[in-house]
Amino acid sequence: MIDHISVGVSDLERSATFYEATLGALGLTRIVTRPRTIGFGKAYPEFWINLREGMPHVPPESGVHICLRAKTTAEVDAFHAAALSAGSPGIRPHDRVRYYAAFVLDPDGNRIEAVTFPAD
What we know:
CATH class: Alpha Beta
Order of helices and strands: EHEEEEHEE
Radius of gyration: 14 Å
């Protein structure tokens, strides 16, 4: 149902570095690079970052939350490790059964999650 997602960022190259690492862990790569926007995906751009100069840090109460599907728990772990290495805050526990996820903040405070639903 959803074709693509776009988030605003205040520093395109800083965010590109963050998203190349975190989205790369899920198999997405940089597909399109334009002066003010970068698109990541597998076959076509599914996740876009767009430069919004002067954009303030996204407040926690904004309500924005993006969740990306991972194939395995290992992909979720790789996504989380890449995000931590890129400066995202630490672990957030989940209490759902068969819901394995990592919830991270990008450099601008956008909330991004990777999730998989293990069978065991």
